[in-house]
Amino acid sequence: MSYGLIIVLMIILGIGLWHTKKYHRAVVNQVAHVWITKNAFEHTALGMAIVSPDCRFLKVNRAYGEITGYTRPELLKMAVKELTHPEDQEKDTPYLQEVFAGNIHSFTTVKRYIHKNGSTIWVRSTISAVRTERGNLKYFVAQIQDMTIAKNAEDELRKSRDNAEVLARTDYLTKTLNRRAFIERLQEELERTKRTQEGFAMILVDIDYFKKVNDQFGHLAGDYVLQKFADCLSNNVRPYDFIGRYGGEEFIICLPDTDVEQAALVAERMRESVEALEVDYLHAQIKVTGSFGVAVYDSHSSDTLDELIEKADGAMYVAKNHKNTVYQWVS
Q1: pLDDT tens for residues 286-315?
Q2: Catalytic entry in 82, 154, 165, 249
Q3: What pTM did the predictor assign?
Q4: d(CA 252, CA 309)
Q5: Domain GGDEF spans what residues (predicted)?
Q6: Residue 66 is among the residues annotated as catalytic for this protein
């Protein structure tokens, strides 16, 4: 065998050994990648699933079952829709349509699932599409994170803020609007009236001889009378009318889209209701009456809020001279 041929054979053998080692390393790396991927899929804290294009579970990890309460065999017989709260079942639809159209690759939503025990849980769901080399949809990779505790805390915080806002606008004793909140609403009504050219009416009422109630029965009895008096007024207004405690034993009522004759009828109905009121407090029966002043703001008015309230107050002052009556402001 010639020296040159030996050299060629050695080169070929070396190349073969090099390719063998390279292939071996590639196989080892591929096996390691598969093991790492499988291990990550199985042991991540996120719920993970492989989902078919028709949204049925093909594979799920341990966390997915822990979050939803179902076993793996149970989930593999289910569609994602079966887990989803009825009100949220169409939440993913527009995004899925975009995925099928090829416009987006993935999307995230926050929605409700029904746990196996029947309770509602909140999850952050991320759906990613996996496609073939030709671009056809192969399957979805779904990830869910349990957001129930965070969502409930968020809801409680929102409720607390809403309650705080209500309390800030409400008279603690009578549950009517406090003076500041009433004036704000009244300003809104004034602006609306300027736009629509429709008027509104205002009634200012004072409890007659209220000081005698406090003196004879005590301030706790007086507070109870204020509550019952406010109830009488509330029972005689429409849902979009609003009532405020103007101060002490005075209350103020706004009646949108109401002229002076209609407002006088409402005030008279209130007066009769108050006159018929019998407040049972301990072993006593307390009766009170009210004096009502009526004023209106119509499309021809140029009054400010203060001027309008002053007119209602003037009418109430005249009514208080007679007690238990209704008086309309006359320009």
Answers
A1: 999 999 999 998 877 778 889 999 999 999
A2: 249
A3: 0.58
A4: 9
A5: 198-331
A6: no
